[in-house]
Every structure is written in C-alpha cells, then in structure tokens.
Amino acid sequence: MSAGQVLNEGKSKKMITTDDPEVLIQYFKDDATAFNGVKKGIIGSKGKVNCAISARIFQWLETEGVKTHYRGLQSEIEMLVDRVEIIPLEVVFRNVAAGSLAKRFGIEEGTELDSPLQEFFLKDDDLGDPLLTRNHVLAFGWADDETMDHLIAEGRKVHDLLTEFWKGLGIKLVDHKLEFGRRADGTIVLADEITPDGCRLWEIGTDRKMDKDRFRRSLGKVEETYAEVADLVAKALPLDAQV
Ligand code: TMP
Ligand code: ASP
C-alpha cells in the first residue's frame, strides 16, 4: 500500500496515511522515552523488534476472538492498521505490584496481587498521565457507561489471554497498558501496540526484567533483552504470510 503523509507523530510511533482512507501505517521508531518524555534515548532495532512482537500478538489475539486494529505488515517496521480514533485512556492491568502502584501505596515491588487490578490513566503527558476512576470519565463525559463496560470486559479478556501467553514463554506478566480505538463504523478495537515498551515482563524464577524498565532504570542489556523477547514470541507465534 503506498504511503501518504504523516498524520501524527508520537514518542515511539508515527501514523501515516495510505491510499485507503480507512487504513493507516503504524511506523515503529527506535526512540524510547520514560517518565512522560523526561528521559529520552534510542533502543537499537526496537522499531523492528516491537513491530514483529505486536504483529504476532495482534494476529493471535484475533484468532482468540479479540477485535484489533491489526491488518498486516507493510515492512519490518511498519504495520497496517485500521484508522481509529484513540480513546484517550490507558487501560492498565496488573498481576504484581510494581512501578507507580508500588510507589503510590508504599507496597514492595514484586508483591503478588490477590486478583488482577485494573486501573485507568488519562493519556496526557502534560498532566503526567493521572490516575482516573470510572466516575471521572463519566462525569467529564469522556466515555459513556457502555464504552467503559466494554473497555473493562475486553481489557480483562486480553489480560487473561496475555498472562497465560507470557507464562507459556517462562515470563510473568507483571503489568501492562492497553489502548482502544473506535473505527469509523463505531466498533471499538484493541489498538496501539503490545510490546515490552508497554508491559512489565519478569523472567519466571529469577524476576529478571525483560521490558522497558531496563531502559527506565538504566539496567543495561536493553537491546539484547528486547531481541530475546522477540525471539521467544516468534517461536511461539508464527506470522501469517503477508499478502
Ligand atoms: P506504571 O507502573 O508506571 O503505572 O505503569 C504500568 C504499566 O503501564 C507498565 O507496564 C508500563 C505501562 N505504561 C505505558 O505503557 N505507558 C505509560 O505512559 C505509562 C505511565 C505506563
Ligand atoms: N511512555 C511514557 C513515556 O514515554 C512513560 C513510560 O513508559 O515510562 O515517557
């Protein structure tokens, strides 16, 4: 599909128009940021690695009945996706306390939660992605009850599938962030990316970090670990031949 112009550029991806108004190219950059853009860097080959991981996981989620924006690959670093309007909420699910949850409640990182915890954050770097309740979303009119029910139920389904998927690769899904978008016909689909940028992944048995915390916390071996995750995902989930 031929590329048009850049519709918008975020910190780690850019969206590019195509000759089909309903289809965009999602271009994965090597750029990495943390702490709402305060820390900046480059993770070598991240674009390629994250594009491959996301493509394989989206394709698999579709076979499990999850509607996603994924349509195929345009290149090693470009994915074809439905044009959607992103719902500006980060839908976070957690199995283990880490990151902002551990800090907010003074809970030791690594504490297993009794049941999966779902949180909403407003997608707004300038405000520092504040934590939100469903009541805030309803009161501000950002989404209606039905949409919120859908995000929670569909998010939980994806969370359960991904928790089991990563477990099968010897990895504990500590927490992760999902984003949803609306197609022109109103259908809500899983959008954005599923990659080590938006998940905390710990090796089972050692708790070795296999995600963006290696970059956030300057733990070293960032590229190597992303590549390792990509290899594990590639072995588990073959990519369909691209048309
Ligand atoms: P947190 O512990 O910082 O709230 O992050 C929870 C999860 O959400 C973690 O896996 C990282 C992911 N995340 C993003 O992908 N983007 C973001 O902007 C933030 C704040 C978190
Ligand atoms: N994605 C956010 C940023 O770019 C937060 C993070 O991942 O730490 O700053």
Protein traits:
single chain, 243 residues, alpha+beta, Phosphorylase Kinase, domain 1, D-amino Acid Aminotransferase, Chain A, domain 1, 2 domains, 7-stranded antiparallel beta sheet, 5-stranded antiparallel beta sheet, globular, binds thymidine-5'-phosphate, binds aspartic acid
Shape verdict: globular
> How do the helices and strands follow one another from N- to C-terminus?
EEEEEHEEEEHEEHHEEEHH
Any low-confidence stretches, pLDDT <50, length ≥5?
Answer: none
| CATH fold type of the largest domain | D-amino Acid Aminotransferase, Chain A, domain 1
Strand content: 25-35%
Q: Kindly state the mean pLDDT as a whole number? A: 96
The computed structural class is alpha+beta
Assembly type of the chains comes to single chain
CATH class term of the largest domain = Alpha Beta
Cα-based radius of gyration, to the nearest Å: 17 Å
Which hetero compounds are present in the coordinates?
A: thymidine-5'-phosphate, aspartic acid
Number of helical stretches of at least 4 residues? 6
What is the helical fraction, as a range of percent? Answer: 25-40%
What is the CATH-assigned architecture of the largest domain? 2-Layer Sandwich
